[in-house]
């Protein structure tokens, strides 16, 4: 039998010295290899092996069952991927594609871009996601054997826009009260916003009639309940698009009122439509900053999913208080005031959430038309935000200057972009693939992280004279 006590008693001090030296040598070699691997590939070798190979093997069926459970509920996984602080034992969430709350009209805006440039602004992947959305919201089981609605079910998935429009006209010939057909015509056949608004007003009358009819019979069974849910979705969609038409035509007060009414009436669908982001953008255009701050305070909650609109609008409103008098030279000598510190912290928070936005706001990278779907924390979301909010940053004197002077310091504070930040979950590694599917081929997708990104951590500032909290 092996006598452990006899073995330990026979060991001399030289053995322990040799053991310590050998383990130190091996640890040093591992550290050097880790440093070399990190410099070359931008991530930890041991961390990648443990996450991708060892952890699934140890967890076994538990991890797979947990993944299947999360897949069935997209709203729960999206919350942690879009900000907030999930529990320590929760796995990194998958990337989720969201409907762009400020998406443009295909006929009146996307099609005009194609006529001018001969470039397709939307990808088939993006349009296919929209077709799935329309089928989900505008169809139900009660549409079976109703020819006009069956036509519209196939019309959403038709790739040829001419055929889609023709199908919508056919549906209206069969049933003049087919509201989804009006929606398709307003989205794709109308070549101006005025024309789209006219069609949507006709659709609103029909949708309200259908809603009242289905409301009276919604308790007569699951099919009737599904029809009422469909009519509710159609009515909400039409009202939202009418509000967006009013915003585009300069009727700001009318648009703000319509968006406010929608946010009050349909709280359960807010996570899908994000109508509060439409309201925030409209209030910024009206320069009603106090009202915008009130809306922001309601939705910038730790329990709600974050977005670029939430984070960057919070930074813009805080920068507004100090941006007009901010000077990097003076700040480097005297340090930051409490108000300036608050603004800088808000900018760092926004950049940590979506690092692609500053290049578009500072116009160091060209803008294109935003897609119909966005990936939060991705380049597609940055495009959608900057496309509509760049002018709001320009309206506030000094806001872009403050952003230019401070945003790059965020990356200095993070151990590495793929690791957990101070406020948000680690930056998802799947954003590049999803953005390439969402964005057209002629656009250069912004990839993060990169070794040379940003090129200068500190521009126009001598950070040796600034307090440490400047980078927080």
Describe what you observe in this structure:
By secondary structure, the chain is mainly α. It contains 24 helices and two strands. The protein has a two-stranded antiparallel ribbon with strand order 1-2. It is globular. The termini are far apart. Belongs to the ST7 family. It is found in: Membrane.
Name a few traits of the molecule:
about 475 residues, two-stranded antiparallel ribbon
Fold blueprint:
Blueprint lengths: L3 H7 L2 H29 L3 H15 L1 H11 L2 H8 L15 E3 L6 H12 L6 H15 L8 H11 L3 H14 L4 H11 L3 H24 L5 H27 L3 H14 L4 H4 L1 H11 L3 H11 L8 H13 L7 H7 L3 H16 L3 H5 L11 E3 L3 H17 L3 H8 L2 H5 L17 H8 L34
- Rg, please? 27 Å
Distance between the termini: 61 Å
Helix content: 55-70%
* Number of continuous helical runs: 24
- Average pLDDT number: 79
Structural class: mainly alpha
Give a quick rundown of the structure:
By secondary structure, the chain is mostly helical. Helices cover 64% and strands 1% of the residues.
């Amino acid at each position: 039998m092996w006598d452990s006590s006899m073995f330990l008693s026979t060991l001399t001090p030289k053995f322990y010295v040799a053991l310590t030296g050998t383990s130190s040598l091996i640890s040093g070699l591992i550290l050097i290899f880790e440093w070399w691997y990190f410099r070359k590939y931008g991530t930890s070798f041991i961390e990648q092996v443990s996450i991708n190979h060892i952890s699934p093997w140890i967890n076994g069926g538990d991890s797979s069952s947990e993944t299947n459970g999360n897949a069935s509920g997209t709203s729960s996984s999206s919350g942690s991927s879009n900000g907030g602080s999930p529990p320590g034992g929760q796995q990194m969430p998958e990337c989720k594609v969201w409907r762009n709350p400020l998406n443009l009209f295909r006929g009146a805006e996307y099609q005009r871009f194609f006529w001018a440039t001969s470039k397709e602004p939307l990808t088939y992947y993006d349009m296919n996601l929209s077709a799935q959305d329309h089928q989900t919201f505008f169809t139900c089981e009660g549409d079976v054997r109703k020819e006009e609605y069956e036509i519209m079910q196939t019309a959403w998935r038709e790739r040829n826009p001419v055929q889609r429009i023709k199908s919508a006209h056919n549906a209206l010939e069969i049933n003049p009260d087919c509201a989804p057909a009006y929606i398709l015509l307003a989205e794709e056949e109308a070549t101006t916003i005025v024309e789209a608004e006219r069609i949507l007003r006709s659709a609103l009358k029909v949708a309200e009639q259908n809603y009242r009819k289905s409301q009276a019979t919604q308790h007569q069974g699951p099919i009737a309940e599904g029809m009422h849910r469909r009519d509710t979705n159609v009515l909400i969609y039409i009202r939202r698009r009418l509000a967006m038409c009013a915003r585009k035509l300069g009727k700001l007060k009318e648009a703000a009122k319509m968006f406010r009414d929608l946010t009050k009436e349909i709280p359960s669908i807010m996570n899908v439509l994000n109508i509060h982001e439409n309201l925030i953008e409209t209030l910024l255009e009206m320069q009603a900053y106090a009202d915008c701050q009130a809306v922001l305070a309601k939705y910038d909650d730790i329990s709600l999913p974050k977005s670029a609109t939430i984070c960057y609008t919070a930074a813009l409103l805080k920068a507004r208080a100090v941006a007009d008098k901010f000077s990097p030279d003076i700040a480097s000598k005297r340090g930051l005031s409490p108000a300036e510190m608050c603004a800088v912290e808000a900018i760092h928070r926004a950049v940590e959430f979506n690092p692609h936005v500053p290049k578009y706001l500072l116009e160091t990278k060209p803008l294109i038309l935003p897609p119909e779907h966005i990936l939060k924390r991705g380049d597609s979301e940055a495009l959608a935000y900057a496309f509509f909010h760049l002018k709001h940053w320009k309206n506030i004197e000094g806001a872009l200057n403050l952003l230019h002077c401070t945003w790059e310091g965020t990356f200095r504070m993070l151990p590495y972009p793929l690791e957990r930040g101070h406020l948000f979950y680690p930056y998802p590694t799947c954003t590049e693939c999803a953005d390439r599917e969402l964005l057209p081929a002629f656009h250069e997708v912004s990839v993060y992280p990169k070794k040379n990104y940003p090129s200068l951590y500190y521009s126009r500032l001598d950070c040796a004279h600034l307090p440490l909290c400047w980078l927080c």
